[in-house]
User: Which sequence fits this backbone?
């Protein structure tokens, strides 16, 4: 106890020096803690992303199964240039053998984009300013056949019976500088933007109810295409043939063909994003480890330097203590305590700094990749580790100087100055 | 017949530096009895500090023996790492530069040597206060060394030397950094400790005036102990 008290009084003798070393050590501790929480947060973000990917992958598998039983029926070649289909055809096709469901849709391109204006190549490689999708707002249909986009990033999706609402892509919010709550004008008809979805393959598209699309686009009683779902994958070919023969001039394209064009692209995009995030995380982890190591080494060297100088400065005092009857272990203990005290002071100040600035430090040091959505927060564990670093730096840094102090000869007490 | 507090037999010390051997002490035989106030005098380089170092168990002799205390403990056989126990229990030191710890108060400096021997903080404090009272330093017990005058610091150092009731007190030029008046008062104090409290004190000094306060004087030259130094005797005869 007395040695502890004496050690504390000794470090207060050189207040400025003690404070300076403690502040630098505090910076090391703050960097250490910030790095730990930054890496932890990046790992959590990467885990979240992987979980999201796996969920998306599972959904994609489900979707694939659906696509294998589906086909798109148009009045001719291409969704934009073919003649419209009468709505009556919906019931007729529904009554065919092996047909599970028919979803009528409108798809029409509006305007043209100049070269280099926003996303010049729109959905399906088109150059329209945007594409209008008119879909039935039927929750049962949507749940079964995914008639609406699912990845809403702002606002909400369309609801049953909404005739004045519109859902737009993220790309269009930039293009038109509009967002949730704003008015979207389609050929003089004002519709309220209720939601924004993440672009994906529907990059320059908007979604409205089928009836609203028919009004706005002057297609009363007509649709652009039908999505036809068969009861089994083996029936797709037969149903497609039957439709084409029943309605000459029409085209029935199985979606398994479309899926092979776009599904792989989506999957590849997701895998690339995941790989980028994984690489980013490994970079952050490696960088974090180096920062932690360097801050630890600096902390130890700082204390070592200070205590080494202190022992040299107090050789006469050490000799006197030995002359008075203090043993080598007593001397070593005292100087170890002095190093530990300085470590502790630096640790506490470092904790305070980290509590305030961890987020700033970790983003500056680690620069997490843009693919990871990182949110940094101090944890009790990281605080204890930071304090532990400071104490260990104090112990390790003062070990050799304290041993040197214990070897000082008691004859130093008689040294004339 | 009373046993000496300290006895040296054939004490010699040789230092080796860069291959050269220097005989600092040569076959010193000395006996110091309880209550002696012995002054050891000699010019610079005569070996007096080396003798003090060996008697204080701060270093080991090359040859010879040192017997300490009434039991005649041969301290030369004790390993160096264990000598601290001998110093703590049996020896007190007074240094030319006082050597007080600047971060501690006068009271804490006096308590310092008691740490290993007296467990009770209350007892340590009580004993330290009594010593400071004896040295007329009670009113300054809360002051730290930089706040004390040279004379006051040396009084505190004397109190510290007495902390564990040592068999022997060794003083290395205790008045070396003091003015005349303060020096006289310090050496007087030491004489009183010897005569009134029967403390055994060995003082190393080059000052014949301070040495004159001692009850015994020995002279040392070129590492050899002399009973008296003719030149000093001659100087004393004619000094005022």
Assistant:
């Amino acid at each position: 106890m007395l040695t502890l008290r004496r050690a504390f009084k000794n470090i207060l003798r050189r207040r400025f020096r003690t404070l300076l070393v403690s502040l630098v050590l505090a910076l090391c501790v703050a960097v250490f803690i910030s790095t730990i929480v930054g890496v932890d947060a990046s790992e959590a973000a990467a885990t979240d992303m992987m979980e999201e990917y796996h969920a998306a992958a599972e959904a994609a598998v489900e979707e694939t199964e659906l696509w294998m039983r589906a086909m798109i029926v148009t009045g001719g070649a291409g969704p934009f240039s073919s003649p419209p289909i009468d709505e009556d055809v919906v019931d007729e096709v529904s009554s065919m053998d092996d047909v599970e469901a028919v979803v009528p849709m409108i798809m029409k391109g509006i305007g043209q984009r100049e070269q280099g204006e926003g996303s010049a190549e729109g959905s399906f490689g088109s150059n329209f300013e945007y594409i209008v999708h008119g879909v039935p707002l039927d929750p049962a249909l949507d749940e079964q056949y995914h008639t609406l986009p699912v990845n809403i990033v702002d606002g909400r999706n369309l609801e049953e019976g909404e005739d004045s609402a519109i859902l737009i892509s993220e790309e269009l919010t930039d293009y038109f500088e509009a967002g949730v709550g704003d008015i979207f004008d389609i050929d003089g008809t004002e519709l309220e933007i209720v939601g924004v979805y993440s672009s994906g393959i529907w990059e320059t598209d908007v979604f409205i109810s089928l009836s609203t699309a028919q009004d706005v686009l002057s297609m009363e009683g007509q649709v652009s295409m039908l999505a036809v779902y068969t009861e089994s994958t083996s029936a797709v070919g037969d149903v497609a043939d039957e439709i084409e023969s029943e309605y000459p001039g029409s085209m029935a394209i199985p979606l398994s063909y479309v899926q092979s064009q776009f599904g792989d692209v989506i999957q590849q995009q997701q895998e690339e994003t995941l790989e980028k995030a994984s690489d980013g995380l490994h970079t952050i982890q490696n960088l974090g480890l180096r920062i932690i190591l360097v801050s630890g080494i600096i902390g130890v060297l700082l204390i070592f330097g200070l205590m080494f100088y202190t022992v040299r400065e107090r050789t006469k005092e050490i000799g006197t203590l030995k002359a008075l009857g203090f043993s080598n272990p007593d001397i070593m203990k005292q100087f170890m305590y002095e190093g530990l005290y300085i470590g502790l002071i630096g640790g506490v100040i470092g904790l305070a700094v980290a509590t305030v600035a961890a987020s700033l430090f970790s983003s500056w040091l680690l620069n997490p990749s843009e693919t990871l959505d990182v949110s940094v927060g101090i944890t009790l564990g990281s605080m204890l580790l930071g304090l532990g670093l400071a104490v260990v730096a104090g112990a390790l840094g003062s070990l050799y100087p304290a041993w040197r102090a214990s070897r000082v000869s008691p004859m130093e007490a008689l040294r004339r100055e | 017949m009373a046993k000496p507090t300290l006895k040296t037999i054939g004490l010699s010390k040789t230092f080796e530096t860069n291959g050269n051997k220097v005989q600092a002490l040569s076959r010193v035989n000395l006996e110091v009895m309880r209550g002696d106030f012995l002054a050891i005098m000699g010019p610079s380089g005569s070996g007096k500090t080396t003798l003090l170092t060996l008697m204080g168990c701060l270093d080991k002799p090359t040859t010879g023996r040192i017997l300490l205390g009434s039991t005649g403990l041969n301290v030369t056989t004790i390993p160096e790492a264990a000598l601290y126990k001998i110093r703590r229990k049996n020896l007190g030191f007074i240094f030319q530069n006082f050597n007080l710890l600047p971060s501690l108060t006068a009271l804490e400096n006096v308590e310092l040597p008691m740490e290993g021997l007296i467990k009770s903080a209350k007892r340590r404090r009580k004993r330290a206060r009594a010593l400071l009272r004896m040295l007329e330093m009670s009113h300054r017990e809360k002051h730290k060394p930089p706040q004390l005058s040279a004379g006051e610091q040396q009084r505190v150092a004397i109190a510290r030397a007495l902390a564990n009731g040592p068999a022997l007190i060794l003083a290395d030029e205790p008045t070396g950094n003091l003015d005349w008046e303060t020096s006289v008062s310090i050496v007087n104090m030491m004489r009183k400790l010897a005569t009134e409290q029967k403390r055994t004190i060995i003082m190393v000094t080059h000052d014949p005036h301070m040495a004159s306060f001692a009850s015994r004087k020995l002279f040392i030259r070129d590492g050899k102990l002399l009973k008296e130094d003719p030149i000093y005797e001659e100087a004393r005869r004619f000094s005022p």
